[in-house]
Design brief:
The protein has 131 residues and is an all-alpha fold. 55% of the residues lie in helices and 0% in strands. It is globular, with a radius of gyration of 17 Å.
Length: 131
């Protein structure tokens, strides 16, 4: 499912898929046996990437990424930003694999009602990156 992906990310994922042994349909990121990654494996890989990124961020004087970040927290962030930017609830629900846009809004659109939670300052940057 590549609907709504930025062109650069779509190209990168397509190139990655072509380089793997398993270029057929199925999970994008697989384990050594060609099966879907386990949750613990994905979380471990994410922590490794965050640690590597934090080394680079420290070198250039930027705040590190919190190692408490999980795949689900990234999903929540993406959905919350999409709703805060005013994207169509049906589109956001489809991106999340939900059949009910109302459920998606109830769970992820809370940012719109919290004080000081404004997406307007970064709206152009986010739209440019995510399409």
């Amino acid at each position: 499912m590549t609907e709504g992906l930025p062109d650069a990310l779509r190209r990168e994922l397509t190139a990655y898929k072509l380089r793997t042994l398993y270029s057929d349909e199925g999970p994008m990121f697989r384990n050594r046996k060609g099966k879907r990654q386990s949750v613990s494996n994905v979380e471990r890989r994410l922590k490794t990437v965050i640690r590597q990124a934090n080394l680079r961020l420290e070198e250039i004087g930027l705040r590190p990424i919190d190692e408490a970040v999980t795949p689900h927290s990234l999903r929540r962030l993406y959905a919350s930003l999409r709703f805060a930017l005013g994207d169509d609830p049906v589109y956001v629900a489809n991106q999340l694999g939900h059949t009910e846009p109302g459920f998606s809004m109830k769970v992820y659109a809370s940012c719109k009602t919290r004080p000081g939670c404004s997406a307007s300052a970064r709206r152009g940057e986010f739209r440019a990156a995510c399409g």
